[in-house]
Amino acid sequence: MSDSVARPRLALAVAVVAISTSAILIRWSTAPPVVAAFYRVLLTTALLAPVLLARHADAVGDLSGRHLLAAGLTGVALAAHFAAWFESLSWTSVAASVTLVQSQPIFVVTGAWLLLNERVTGRTVLGVVVAIAGIVVMSLGDLLGGTAVGPRPLYGNALALVGGLMAAGYVLAGRSLRQRLPLLPYVTVVYGVAALALLAVVLAQGLPLTGYESREWLLFLGMAVGPGILGHTLVNWSLAHVESSLVSVTLLGEPLGSALLALLLLTEVPSSWTVAGGAVVLAGITLTARSSE
């Protein structure tokens, strides 16, 4: 295998491992979920900003009003994604939350069809239907079977789905801006807006921004460096070197990795309903993601 093929695949493998740690770091944190989300985004922005100033100092200043609006919408969608998903982990299992938040390809193709008039194939429809069936199994099965993991699994699952929907909005709203800007200016601007939006939520709820133990600050930094920098940055870099279908399918390793880490580090065993429903959801997401290529 040549280096041009091996290096992106190695980068994807590292990225999936890094992203898979996100749910565990969130669970370990005792800070309010929206505060943890704020510091993850803020610290990621702070780490990227010096590189942006050194390499793309003029790119952000060249943005038009239209592109600034797109950046704002994208950042707000990303903030809503983090807020909903971080909160979901307080109420449902890691396996269910991470699987459902990965459902964003379903919302992307549906939104592209409704809002952008993009073509929808029969395979796309089948993928969406399969994924929805898996979501129903996962969300209702635990309650009917009496083996739910988490204090309010249905509520947590709903929040994770909202997180997936907002992630889809992040993708759709950012399309024009991503075409206009290189990767680093794009993600820095969007993360900056997301940090401001999350800060507004924290302040509106009257939550403390300081007074946390050093352990919490290390967890915030870990969320920024691991899932934020090593995870999503490597994924975006890989998109320039391998097919997006390979990237989409590889990212489905996150629910599996997160569930395994939750089993090992949190002693959290997903129920049989979550495992069965999650497998169906992942199959539907795979069909949907591949059909959009």
UniProtKB/TrEMBL annotation:
InterPro entries in the cross-refs: EamA_dom, EmrE-like
Keywords attached to this entry: Membrane, Transmembrane, Transmembrane helix
Protein name: EamA domain-containing protein
Record-level GO cellular component terms: membrane
Taxonomic path: Archaea, Methanobacteriati, Methanobacteriota, Stenosarchaea group, Halobacteria
Domain annotation EamA: ranges: 11-139, 155-288
Annotated TM spans: 12-31, 37-55, 67-86, 92-116, 125-148, 154-172, 184-205, 217-239, 246-266, 272-289
